[in-house]
User: Fold these one by one.
Assistant:
Number 1:
Amino acid sequence: MNNTWLPWTADMVDEELVANILDKTKMKTYKKGEVILHQGGISSNYFLLLSGRVEVSLNSSNGKKKIVSIHEPRCFFGELIMDKESNYFN
């Protein structure tokens, strides 16, 4: 795997990268409060947030919700982005 830094944080993705990604993928819009990924689910998708905010949270066995992070626009998120075996950015 290439050891270069991956743009996970807000405002670190330039227009050229956004255009390149949109050229190769489909854009989907989610409504406020809509679940994008479910805890424990498996997905090979990654997401690039272009507008709005995304809350990442976990639910404990007793039902308590813990907010892990809040993603801002121009941020990648999803399981694929955390997978060290992924070669998408190499």
Number 2:
Amino acid sequence: MFVKRFIFNPIQVNTYLAIDEKSKQCVLIDAGCLEASEQEELATYIRNHDLQLTHVLNTHLHLDHCFGNAFIYRTFGVGPEAHRDDENLLGILKAHAQMFGIDFNDDVQPLHGYLSEGDVISFGESRLSVIHVPGHSRGGLAFYSESDKLLFSGDSLFKNSIGRTDLHGGNYRILVSNLITKIMILPGETDVYPGHGDMTTIEDERLNNPYLQ
């Protein structure tokens, strides 16, 4: 599996394409593209590399992670999937954008499917397992590939930090508990692709993350 990272919108979200190199099928994780130039950058990459987009996955539904969902649906016909417990956040997306001073004039794209703990997303010969990691939001998800030793952690786990818990649906105790019991048990060599900032590994977070000691 090859991972292509884009950094989009004023909140600097990591948007990822996880690509099955043999079949060229791919999934999009957290479509944060807001400006037309960002949307075009993402669409051009998909087209120029002859990729077949099969899933649009959201680690959670805070505004910065789903700005581009409607554009992607219009352009590629693939609707977003997320955890049911975050669906209510779509109803306040535009209000949150105004609160952050962000001009968001697109449609709010409804979910086309729900993801739950233990689900498996298949594309080509690649697989991503769904892990429910509430605490940053009620419906927070991570996506894990055992064979490729990688994890898309959304805003639950960052390099030497964790997601904020003062937003709607956040809970510090629940987040830390889920990270310790569900994420830190993964193999240490697992590469972690977070929702913001730089990559890390599970082993590095075991050793250096002050919130998880």
Number 3:
Amino acid sequence: MNDSSSITSGVEVSVQTQYSATHSKPHFGRYFFLYTISIKNKNNYSIQLLKRHWDIYDSTGEFNQLSGKGVVGVQPVIEPNQIYTYTSGCSFKSDAGKMSGFYTMLRLFDEKEFEIKIPEFVMILQAKLN
């Protein structure tokens, strides 16, 4: 399992990753990884996650961008000192890849949008690290 974290504008984003053998088919060039993201609002005001943007790199050299509303079908409101956690996944053609990006957030008290960084995190088959 790999860990990454960063803080932007009083919002901490932490990521943990793991390989999912049950969802992978290496003989067909499909390696599936799960990532769990925790977003902690360290501010004294409520925020809402509106959008996400991902830059996704496969170790084969393939690059993809993905943007959309919310995460896992929701646009959560995160109260001061609260944490919102979700798990999602990504499939690669190789046994390693990486992702990074940003969330577009909304400060609820003045409806001002701002972006917070999603730190780069690497997903790699543990056997490659031995």
Number 4:
Amino acid sequence: MTAAAPTANRNRRTALIMVGVALAMLALGFASVPLYRIFCQVTGYNGTTQRSTAAQANAVKVAAGHISVRFDGNVERGMDWRFSPQQITQDMRIGQRMQAFYTAENLAKEPITGVASFNVEPDLVGKYFKKIQCFCFNQQTLQPGQKVDMPVIYYVDPAIADDPETKDINQITLSYTFHKVATGAAKALDRADPAR
């Protein structure tokens, strides 16, 4: 009888540990998407660009080097929008603030809300590509037939020239893809992530 009591305690303790592990894994599953987004925004991983304030941009000194930015625009399959950059490339001095425009047009007979995902190529430059203002920070709703110009204000951090892995890069591609957001999901996304 004394041997059965320690065995029962061990089994109970093991069961509690396993329930705790299962709950921790479930919580990690729900937290993984926001944590991954934060990780990418902080590190520039996978070509994720960085956000900058106007005050931070004003403090940047324009460097002597030059770089070219190429623009790309797409929509997901089945989204009835036309979306493209108004310029193919912009040549600039590193650290110089620039503005580029994209044009979006709703070809459908009903309003469509979209949200843009984005990245830069090569992936290594994501942490140096800084956006001050961008249509990609918020969802965009276009009425039937509506056509709009969408600006992005950005600069390339001069620290790119000090990084041995990026100092020889002379062109960056900034790419956006618009995704359709379901009406109910659009409202839920705005409530869940007000920083978008």
